[in-house]
């Protein structure tokens, strides 16, 4: 349904360092840059960060990235912790979503809820 998604950041260097670190275990990387606008992806850039242009703090966004395995979810979590991210929920199965939903949730430098999720069984 979605082709790409972009979020705004108050601190592009901090956000780009965070996403460089936490998306690598999921197989994604920085693919395009237009000044302070950065696109990440696996095959093409489908997640973008750009400078915040409106005043105020904005609203929390929730972004869930697909992980190829439960080990990749754990690696995402470990990378986020290593980068100093606040852990919202450590990696675990979320049976209330479905029996094999395995996810971890952290907060990015702008306060967004960022998740890595694997839907495959263990």
Quick overview of this protein structure:
Residues 1-119 form the VOC domain. The chain is α/β, with parallel strands linked by helices.
Question: Which descriptors apply to this entry?
Answer:
122 residues; 2,3-Dihydroxybiphenyl 1,2-Dioxygenase, domain 1; 4-stranded mixed beta sheet; 2 helices; dioxygenase activity; Glyas_Fos-R_dOase_dom; Glyas_Bleomycin-R_OHBP_Dase; dioxygenase; Catechol 2,3-dioxygenase
Would you write up a description of this structure?
InterPro entries: Glyas_Bleomycin-R_OHBP_Dase, Glyas_Fos-R_dOase_dom, VOC_core. It comes from Micromonospora halophytica. One of its GO terms (molecular function) is dioxygenase activity. With 122 residues, the chain is of the alpha/beta class. It has a single domain (5-52, 60-118), classed as 2,3-Dihydroxybiphenyl 1,2-Dioxygenase, domain 1. Helix content is 20%, strand content 39%. The protein is built from two helices and eight strands; from the N terminus they run E-H-E-E-E-E-H-E-E-E. It has helices at residues 12-23, 70-82, and strands at 5-9, 29-34, 37-41, 45-51, 62-66, 86-93, 102-107, 113-118. The strands form two sheets. Strands 1-4-3-2 form a four-stranded mixed sheet, covered by helices on one side. A hairpin with a 2-residue loop joins strand 2 and strand 3 (37-41). The longest helix has 13 residues, at 70-82. The chain is globular and about 40 Å long. The mean pLDDT is 95.
């Amino acid at each position: 349904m979605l082709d790409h998604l972009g979020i705004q950041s108050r601190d592009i260097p901090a956000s780009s360092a965070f996403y460089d670190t936490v998306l690598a275990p999921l197989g994604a990387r920085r693919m395009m840059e237009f000044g302070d606008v950065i696109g990440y992806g696996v095959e093409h850039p489908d997640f973008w960060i750009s400078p915040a242009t409106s005043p105020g703090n904005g609203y929390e966004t929730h972004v869930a990235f697909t992980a190829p395995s439960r080990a990749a979810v754990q690696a995402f979590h470990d990378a986020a912790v290593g980068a100093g991210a606040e852990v919202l929920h450590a990696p675990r199965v979320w049976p209330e979503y479905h029996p094999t939903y395995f996810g971890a949730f952290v907060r990015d430098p702008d306060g967004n809820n960022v998740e890595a999720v694997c839907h495959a069984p263990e």
